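Journal club side-thread
Mid-discussion, someone asked how the predicted structure for our own chain would compare to the paper's figures. Pasting it here so we can look after the session.
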Amino acid sequence: MVKMSSIRTLLSITATLDLEVEQMDVKTTFLHGNLEEEIYMKQPDGFLVEGEEYYVCRLRKSLCGLKQAPRQWYKKFESFICEQGYKKTTSDHCVFVKSFSNGDFIILLLYVDDMLIVGKDVSKINRLRSNWASHLL
């Protein structure tokens, strides 16, 4: 979970350096994680077949309400963002930073299904957002 001091620090850096800040909310976040274990559930209402009422469904993806859902979401997000060249900070594993060759940088702060994305160049922020949408959602 992101530390409150990380949010304050990021907003302070943003104000001091006059950076751009974008907020992003990922809808249906916990439906995007992949499960690592076998989980079964009873058939949902409306999908019961006569004579097969006692069959169960094996989940292939996470569902809201599963205790594994937040962790699986974070693992999928972390994998994607690190593949994009972002580094996780050692002080807070929900803060990721990417430096560019021209001295520019982007800082991304993840808080459950909300993100703050901070940087000088809005086009780089928008590129990250579109990459995110096309690869994970």
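Post-session note: The longest strand covers residues 105-111.
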